[in-house]
Amino acid sequence: MDVGALEKFNPWWVGEGVPPGLLGTHRRPYFEEAAKYIDKRFIVLLYGLRRVGKSTILYQLADMLLKKGINPLRVLYFSFDEQPAQIEQILSAYEEKVIKGRIGGQKTYLFLDEVQKVGDWQSKLKVLYDLNPDLKIFVSGSASISLQKKAAESLAGRVVDVHVKPLSFREFLQWKGAKMDESRPELYQKEASLHLADYMRKGGFPEITDHAEDGMVRKYVKSAVLDRILYRDIPQEFGVRDLELLRALHELFAREPGMIANVEGIAKDLGRNRITVANYIEYLKHALLICDVKNLRGSALATSRKNKKIYPTSPAFTFAMREDFFSGAVLSKVAETLVAAHLEAEYYYRNSFEVDFVKKKGKVAVPVEVKFGKVAQGQALRFMEIYKSPRGVVVSKDEFSPRGKVKVVPLWLFLMKSSEAAE
User: 329-345 burial, b for 16+ CB within 10 Å, e for fewer?
Assistant: First the structure.
């Protein structure tokens, strides 16, 4: 490998640090989470959707090291998304042409971006880790769940993972410079609703936080996020050939948040094999484009593997597919998408009646209903009676009633709180 390729990714070797344009405008909580391991031996794995800021965090970590006085030549960054290479090639060229010696003997920091592009990357990192105690390794990747599983299997005891998510609503408000007093929600309802509508469109992708035009937002989500994942990342990771089916499935789930995943029915409608459809749905989950919520049933609250509800992981995916995004029926489902993501929901309930989500903590099951039209507490109360739940939550469009066994909370305020406090 030519040294010029390495210098391209590491301008601080000849300059005054990490160029400001690579550092972003904010430090997210995930930076602090990764930084606390800077002096620990563990490999740090940042995983998450494309365009949520993983590369920026790597650059911010490198910048922190340089400002602490670390020798710039001992901070090495490489992006496999921009240039194909093997880890061995990079380190060989680095030792031969940059530091002109072995890595050992002096602390060296290695940042590998989009590492899933490298075949058998986890085994190669294991060897690097075991043979080089002076090498601190940070990696990022976008084929996310698969990446995490490979790391857990091959790097057990050697890796800590950090799930970098899109901006939360609270972060989005901070980036926009908006301040909300959660103790006085009635004073902020109008302003909060405007910011919430903006957040729904943009889905928490940092680069479009300040973009206003709908067409620009849709183009960004489709080209910078979805096309890269659907047409590059998933095919490379799983050998997918039927890209039309992959696209059709994602569009189906993005357009219809919360639909029941009847695999046989979907396969019939799309004219494809049931097993193929089931596999492709799993690939979409692995890429963090969709999540599923299982039906919680039975006196022992046993879960049903059938009748899973599917949600896109970002409301921006729905916005990219639907011109009628802000119509009542669609907006209610978009609200469910946000609640599912905020709660990291695992369950809903459907038997003789339905509850949108059930948040389990130990033996306690809390019903969470999303009502963007007329607020009704009946289903939550029925669930609470059957399963002896101590409380329930109804997430509304703008109503607020914090007292009583069923707490009614507007969506914007619900999203401002931690998932535990939001129950």
Answer: ebbbbbbbbbbbbbbeb
On the 0-12 / 13-18 / 19+ scale of CB atoms within 10 A, 154 is: middle
Distance from chain centroid for Cα 354: 27
Residue 263 confidence (pLDDT) above 90: yes
Closest by CA position to 3, among listed 65, 71, 74, 91: 91
Least confident of 79-83, 315-319, 334-338: 79-83
- The CATH H-level superfamily of 3-163 is P-loop containing nucleotide triphosphate hydrolases (3.40.50.300)
How far, CA to CA in Å, does 216 sit from each of 14, 209, 211?
36, 12, 7
- Give burial (CB, 10 Å; 0-12/13-18/19+) of 159: buried
The whole-angstrom separation of Cα 151 and Cα 161 is 9
- What pLDDT sits at residue 394? 97
Domain residue spans in the chain?
Answer: 3-163, 169-416
Mean pLDDT of the chain: 93
Q: Give the per-residue pLDDT at 422.
A: 58
CA distance 129 to 136: 8
The pLDDT of residue 375 is above 50: yes
Does the pLDDT at position 151 exceed 50? yes
Chain centroid to CA 223:
18
Contact in structure between 53 and 85 (CB atoms under 8 Å): no
* Element at 5 (helix H, strand E): helix 3-9
Q: At what angle do helices 189-202 and 169-176 cross, to 10 degrees?
A: 110
Backbone angles phi, psi at 29, to 5 degrees: -55, -25
List pLDDT tens digits, range 29-66.
999 999 999 999 999 999 999 999 999 999 999 999 99
Per-residue pLDDT for 103 more than 80? yes
**Is 155 in contact with 122 (CB distance < 8 Å)?**
yes
| Residue entry with tokens 């194909």 | 84
Can you tell me the distance from the alpha carbon of 144 to that of 241, in angstroms, rounded to the nearest whole number? 20
CA end-to-end span of the chain: 54
314 and 327 Cβ atoms separated by less than 8 Å: no
Strand order in the sheet with 135-141: 75-79, 108-113, 135-141, 43-47, 159-163
Listed in sequence order, the residues at least 6 apart from 28 whose beta carbon sits closer than 8 Å to its beta carbon are 53, 57, 164, 167, 171
Maximum separation of any 2 CA atoms in the chain, in Å: 72
